[in-house]
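In practice, a research group might receive sequence data for several interacting partners and want a quick structural hypothesis before committing to experiments. The following worked case mirrors that situation: the sequences arrive first, and a predicted assembly follows.
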Amino acid sequence: MAKDTKERILEAALEMFSQKGYAGTNIRELTASLGLVKSSMYRHFKSKEEIWNTLLDEMIAYYGARFGSPENLPPIPDSLEGLVAMTRHMTDVTIHDEKIIMTRKLLSIEQFRDERARDLATKHFLTGLKEMFTHIFAGMMDKGLLRKDDPEMLAFAYTAPISALIHWSDREPEKTEEAMAQIEAFSRHFVKTYGVN
Amino acid sequence: MAKDTKERILEAALEMFSQKGYAGTNIRELTASLGLVKSSMYRHFKSKEEIWNTLLDEMIAYYGARFGSPENLPPIPDSLEGLVAMTRHMTDVTIHDEKIIMTRKLLSIEQFRDERARDLATKHFLTGLKEMFTHIFAGMMDKGLLRKDDPEMLAFAYTAPISALIHWSDREPEKTEEAMAQIEAFSRHFVKTYGVN
DNA sequence: TTGACATGTGACCGCTCGTTCACTATACTG
DNA sequence: CAGTATAGTGAACGAGCGGTCACATGTCAA
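A structural hypothesis for the assembly, expressed as tokens:
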């Protein structure tokens, strides 16, 4: 019946770990949510910890493919409104995608216990977006769309507040639309401050 | 022998909870770190959960006294350099104080499991500093030190990046001084952007 | 048809968890 | 000095944990 039980276990684990943490999750409940008994899990993973490690491997790979490779850097916007629109689109994806939300929650919970989670959290929450927007802002300065300034500093000043609002939305999902609106407002304020005309 | 065992239990609990989370902490290890056996804990708290609730009560009270009351709002700086200096001082305290560090970690870990932790996390990580600096920036605009703008938006744009760097320092304590330097650089960039002369 | 392999099951294992309790030692109080 | 409250102890508890294993079932190739 189960098409790919191993994959379903990983999905359920991501969900439970991101809610209760690794220590707060137990195998019985996890497998029961898939209509299995706990011993069945051991056909696919040799331990609870192996689930955790596999999950982290996948997250690292996914993150590397999505944000790490230079070939899928977003295009440099042609206008200030283009920057706002791109920001809106990226935010819309990352703030609503259940898997990405659960990944952020899991990293928040486990960042102080697991070294790989800690490293990934820093990339996810701090340096990843900053590097991407450093490239974007440098390009926009070249095009004369943004005032000449330190692109890395601007990228940090731009992405950190957006990340803070995304974290707020993770914590209080009923405020997601409000968070989106605040990100839009912040984005417009930013282009008003640093944009050229 | 023990001067105030109840207080020592709370301190040890804050330390362990902020490292391993509530579910990952066990009473035996906690009490052993104080030279007690586990049953002794039950002289002071009726359950593990009561420790957690007491800890949260204290955190809420501490936070309310420190950031909530209007009487101990910081004075409005008299110069742009004064804002940088005040920021440096506040950061220095909050980034090095072990108890405050552990509080932030604990809120990061438990924000998705406990409703009160969630609410406190939002105040701690997002709205608290923003409200304080909204007041400060409004005052500085009145004094003609900052360009006229939406003080709340500026406060958010100022405090969110600083918070992000403090979180980074929590995660990677060996980078604390680097985080301090980056906060200083960001602060100076901010006053260069929004300051009047 | 048979044998090999993958998948799922239920009973069971040893261990650790939070919690209880009778008991002891100590310190304060009338 | 006797009496009482307070703090700490070690043994024991029931429950739940992660993990193992002999066994049942289904699939598919030889």
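Before designing any experiment, note the following. The radius of gyration of chain A is 20 Å. DSSP finds nine helices and no strands in chain A.
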